[in-house]
Amino acid sequence: MRILISAYAFNPSSSKTLHPGEDLFGWKMVEQISRHHQVWVITEAYNQAAVLEALDQETVSKIKNLNIVFVQLPFNLRKLFYKIEFAQRFYYYLWQFLAWVKARELHRRYNFHLVHHLTFGNYWIPSFMGAFLPLKFIWGPVGGGQQTPKPLLKEFSFGGKLAEKTRQLAQWLSRQQFIWHRCVARACFILVCNHETKTKIPAKYHNKVRLFPVNGIDSQDVRKLPMKPTRRRGFTILMAGRLHRLKGFSLGLRAFALFREVHPEAKLKIIGSGPEEKKLIRLAEELGITRGVTFISWLPRPQLLTEMKKVDVFLFPSFRDGGGAVVIEAMACGKPVICLDTAGPGFHIHQEWGIKIPPSSPKILTQQIKEALEKLWSEPELRVKMGEAARQRVIEVYLWEKLGKRMADYYQECVKLKVDFDESRKR
Questions:
Q1: Which runs of E-coded beta strand occur in 136-264?
Q2: Could you report the per-residue pLDDT of 226-260, keeping only the tens digit for each?
Q3: Domains of the chain (ranges plus CATH)?
Q4: CA–CA separation, 239 and 268 (whole Å)
Q5: The whole model's pTM is what?
């Protein structure tokens, strides 16, 4: 089939770009899809240098059936809009219109069988291509339905709370648009990456909603490690990700401080960079745990996986992460995961390979994270059992090849559906 894909984030060199998780997801999924179909990708021009460099490499040059079109708004507007976090979404909305104009031109030339909006994975900003191209349409996987649990808003500054309220208002306003309702109505399938996002889709369309992760991993990164159920003197915990207020690193630090009162030999590594870095360093000093905490700046993905393999437990207390790529990476490294039972991490983790904690007040969560750490410290056999179950889960569900096969199945189902484009316009 001839497939048209909208992938604003589409970049093999996610370490060098603006949206690391989605960039890599877009690239890897297109790589899988292009193995079976002729693919045209419309993407933002910020990806151009890294994409062309990758296509020159021998390992990637074998990808056939792949055509890439770079689109950018004029006057270098990206640099202007990207100075403000929330304005990035407005730029993306405008970019979609320009991409749709290009898509119409391509469709007249190549007569596509299917259009797929792949990235950004955002349910509340509609897809222009999906809404207006006279093609069968798959949307997603999308997220964004998750919200910061109300008790955890106490962790935010006034500015952080205002940002959350602004986000909620923007989502509500976007869902009132004709184009949003048309996009939802026309989709053959709406793929969502967490349960919260499904609840934001009107109930009459739930029959075409499917759960689909926005994270995957290469098979060579899933290796069986020699793990022995022994309680050695050292015990190392890892937190990793962008140092942002939404990631809950402050909760992790306070829980570690309680845990270290009982186990002074315990160590905590924090890998990442971001706006909260100085605040977290100050918090570690105030808690008196600086000797037990190591801050490591952002690491390339291979080095991060190496660090993950050295630790005992992965802690990820994110408030509303849509996906949580680092959770899948930790599972692939055979590590039990402690997370909050929200959004992407709550979707990824089951009791067989991790501990997920229901959201509540910061004080209660801090104590519950400490208790989860205590449980995994005291039961080394359980750590090994959970770690192996986590690794097996990744093999069964999260390998890029498996995700590509699932997407191919949705393509086949979609093209078989009878769609009345005139009727979809009336909706």
A1: 136-142, 187-192, 209-211, 236-240
A2: 555 555 567 999 999 989 988 999 999 999 999 99
A3: 2-216+399-426 (3.40.50.2000), 219-398 (3.40.50.2000)
A4: 8
A5: 0.88
